What we know:
Blueprint: H1 3-7, H2 12-20, H3 24-31, E1 37-38, H4 39-46, H5 51-63, E2 67-72, E3 78-83, H6 85-88, H7 91-104, H8 107-126
Antiparallel strand pairs: 1-3, 2-3
Amino acid sequence: MNSKLLRYSDCPMKRSMSILGSKWKPILIYSLRERNARFGQLAAIVGTISRKVLAATLKEMEAEGLVTREEHAEPPLRVEYSLTERGRELLPIMESLSAWDLKYYTLEDAERVKSYKTTARQRRKAA
């Protein structure tokens, strides 16, 4: 379903998920919870996101009023991202998700993920 249709839905969950629906937005919100960060810092914190996707996601989040982008004109030119009040209001939700994960994610889950990644890598090499 088109995200614009979800955004104007009469269902609050559909509207909320149209904003938070990407896998990167909650991670970026959580990453910005305690400080402002530059683009490169966010890329390093997240680790597995491409710079193109990070830039597009930050632009979407800025348009949705979740983050602000502040340019500092003094040399060297730098840009910092921070959560807006609207973005900060999502932090209890992100922290609850993190606590839920810590409660239910087990060592067996970690081994299963590690095994899956190894198997996927082997399949790619064989192809």
